[in-house]
TrEMBL record:
InterPro entries from the UniProt entry: RepABC_RepC (IPR047611), RepC_N (IPR005090), WH-like_DNA-bd_sf (IPR036388)
Region (Disordered) residue spans: 210-262
Keyword terms: Coiled coil
Protein name, entry field: Replication protein C
Origin: domain of life: Bacteria
UniProt keyword Coiled coil present: yes
Domain Plasmid replication protein C N-terminal: 10-169
Pfam families: RP-C
Signal peptide: none
Bias (Basic and acidic residues) ranges: 239-250
NCBIfam families: RepABC_RepC (NF040974)
Residue stretches in coiled coil: 140-167
Length: 378
């Protein structure tokens, strides 16, 4: 027994702490929950573990003295203090807390948690060690502050974008196209996954509209347009997208079996833009409800979408040269629907151009395009 007590790794010896309440240890973890990969149940289990730390132990840690940081509750006791979570959920939460570097295991030979007493006093214990959480407080607090600052910046940018939109809505010369775009921008700003770069791109677009509003769209155009322009005739308001490099292309046919296999409500890249209408680009249409009148208008839309998705001008230029504006629009429509799951849209777009089209980060089991569809290869 004496030999087993030689290591003192379960004892925390650190400078005096500013906090006077042991539950203050949880504040930065709550802020960083998503970044740490934790679920709400994991926080409940961690809170329960902290509750098993005796107040006297915390007082000694606050004074910079050595103290035992291992707690040894059974899963049943943890369940009682963790809102009645079942033991299976508790075990999974403990694994995630360990993987996040917030606690550590100190297992006995039989896996039980219990204290080691000498003359009736607890000197050591087997169980769950809270020392990592205590020793990482400074780093966790700094990271939590940085995340709070980032969220504050997002809120400020979102507020600025909404203010610019409100200013535009007060204009008396607002055309229908711009009004629809402002409605789409309001919907886009509600997305919680937008980054600061994406909101900044929206602000730039709003400022452009405020300083140089576009003229009203002419939906009664009947004269044929030049190659690369959007055409509309015989009273049609739906305009088709065609690549400037291809004069004509037979529309691709999709069998009933293929349609049944396609995921619902998700845009795909295996389509022929020459046979699609503006309504088929559902994600882009949310931002730009009115179809572009000509190739120049289409190029402006592509440039704005690339900025929103953080795709560089060089990558976008390479895409326009390689697959043309129609298929470029098709890929951007695909990426907009997957903003939360594609971390690096610029790299993904380059993969499309290189013919790999990997779908890392997409919902596996739902997206069936593991490689670049043949209709996008050049």
């Amino acid at each position: 027994m004496k030999q087993a007590l030689t290591p003192i790794t379960a004892l925390a010896d650190r400078p005096a702490m500013r906090e006077t309440n042991r539950y203050d240890l949880l504040a930065p973890v709550r802020t960083l929950r998503r970044s740490l990969g934790l679920a709400p149940n994991d926080l409940a289990v961690l809170t329960a573990l902290v509750s098993f730390m005796p107040r006297a132990t915390w007082d000694r840690l606050a004074r910079g003295q050595e103290a035992l940081t291992v707690v040894f509750p059974s899963n049943t006791a943890l369940s009682d203090r963790a809102n009645g979570l079942d033991e299976r959920t508790i075990r999974r939460s403990l694994v995630r807390l360990i993987d996040a570097g917030l606690i550590a295991r100190r297992d006995s030979a039989n896996g039980k948690r219990f204290p080691l007493r000498i003359k009736g006093a607890i000197r050591n214990a087997f169980g769950l060690d809270l020392r990592p959480l205590i020793h990482r407080q400074a780093d966790l607090q700094a990271a939590a502050q940085a995340e709070d600052d980032a969220r504050e910046q997002l809120r400020a940018l979102r507020t600025e974008a909404l203010a610019l939109r409100a200013t535009l809505l007060q204009r008396t010369d607002l055309d229908e196209d711009t009004a629809l775009r402002l409605t789409a921008i309001r919907t886009l700003l509600r997305r919680q996954t937008l980054s600061t770069d994406q909101i900044s791109a929206i602000i730039a677009d709003l400022r452009h509209l405020l300083n140089d509003p576009e003229p009203p769209a002419d939906t009664t155009q009947t004269a044929p347009s030049q190659p690369g322009e959007m055409t509309g005739k015989h009273g049609q308001t739906v305009r088709h997208i065609e690549s400037e490099k291809i004069e004509s292309k037979k529309p691709s046919r999709v069998t009933a079996h293929q349609q049944a296999q396609q995921p619902e409500n998700l845009p795909i890249m295996a389509a022929d833009p020459a046979s699609m209408s503006w309504d088929d680009f559902d994600q882009v249409k949310t931002l730009y409800p009115i179809a572009p009148k000509d190739g120049r208008s289409l190029h402006q839309i592509l440039t704005a979408l690339a900025a929103m998705l953080r795709i560089s001008e060089r990558t976008m230029a390479a895409g326009l040269r390689s697959i043309g504006p129609g298929r470029t629009l098709l890929v951007l429509n695909y990426l907009i629907a997957r903003i939360p799951s594609i971390r690096k849209p610029d790299a993904y777009f380059r993969q499309v151009l290189n013919g790999t089209g990997l779908t890392d980060g997409l919902d596996r089991g739902q997206d069936r395009f593991r490689t670049l569809p043949a209709s996008l290869r050049v």
